[in-house]
Amino acid sequence: MPPSLERLQQLLKQLPGLGYRSAERVALHLLVEKPERLPALVDALQQAARSVRRCERCGNLAEGERCEICSDAKRDQGVVCVVENVPDLVALERSGAYRGVYHVIHGKLSPIHGVGPEQLNFASLRARLAAGDIREIILALSNDVEGEATCHYLTSEVLPPTGGPTVTRIGFGLPSGGGVLYADPVTLKSALDARRSYS
Ligand SMILES: [Zn+2]
Known about the structure:
The chain is an alpha/beta fold.
């Protein structure tokens, strides 16, 4: 096998959902079966790498300083759903059940994996809270020990001790140990509707 093809296959194999066989199929597809697709793909990858960054406000993916959700006047900017990662946000958006905005903390507290508060996106949440325009924080973190510890840290160390927003948590019917990512849209909608006070 030519070294370039081998390298392409090695890189593809590292992508989620692609094992050795799938990586080989994709590489051969792009180089042998449909080489005319390659320039557009290369261009899209370069364009995305250049222009996609984190929203300065919420941590979602954005092409400008703010993401489309933070820039959307039709969304309720006073209700903020805190999620671990962008795919969680995507799952909630797909459910169509939520009209507020988000805050993506990019992980959860995990001392075993060396993730402390300083690795998570709390600074911009503090800034949003200080600006005083948040009425409700919805915690949509996974219902495992690390998610629980992160919720506790948020309420005790990030949110103001008094006079802060209402804090609620979803979680009903979500897969045990999993987050919103693996829940179907109907489950997510009922989990959001049935959120309850967290303290
Ligand atoms: Zn945003």
